[in-house]
Design brief:
The protein is mostly helical and about 150 residues long. It has one domain (about 1-145). Helix content is about 65%, strand content about 0%. Helix 2 (about 20-50) runs antiparallel to helix 3, helix 3 (about 75-90) runs antiparallel to helix 4 (about 95-110) and helix 4 runs antiparallel to helix 6 (about 130-145). The longest helix is centred in the N-terminal third of the chain and has 31 residues, at about 20-50.
Length: about 150
């Protein structure tokens, strides 16, 4: 979005830096980090309230794992939000590779979603078996070539 605005203005002054992908990549990384740091504590608190019990821990596991009891799951959602927002903010949205990267990233996020969801909703400490997960990954990764 910022690239389009700078392009419309003719890249004057410091906005000339937005032309360079290395600057935009660094700025997008910094923006994702800032989003994660600013939203992280509130997001984790929201997940803790919403999920209640949090991560179930098996009784037959190591004693050191008992410290994880009550830890909210689905923190990867915060990372996905931060990355997607920063990419949409800084990258050239006319570039089809940007959209391919975003779709593959979101696709892998959807593939990874059943594990914390099942852990939280059914209070089990295991997710789907590896065969359907690997099949989904095998289908999602080459799907980017169709774009």
């Amino acid at each position: 979005m910022l690239y389009v605005i700078a392009e419309q203005l003719g890249f004057p002054g410091l906005l000339n830096l937005i032309r360079y992908i290395s600057f935009r990549a660094g700025a997008a990384s910094a923006t994702a980090l800032i989003i994660g740091l600013l939203l992280g504590p509130k997001f984790i608190s929201w997940l803790r309230v919403r999920q209640g019990k949090g991560q179930p821990i098996r009784a037959d596991g190591p004693q050191s794992h008992l410290a994880k009891r009550g830890t909210p799951t689905m923190g990867g959602l915060l990372i996905l939000i931060a990355v997607i927002v920063s990419v949409l903010l800084w990258m050239n949205l006319a570039n089809p590779y940007v959209w391919a990267c975003l779709l593959v990233t979101a696709g892998f996020g959807l593939i990874g979603w059943p594990l914390p969801w099942r852990t939280r909703s059914q209070l089990m400490n295991f997710g789907p078996s590896s065969r359907p997960m690997m099949s989904a990954v095998a289908l999602a990764a080459p799907a980017r070539k169709l774009m």
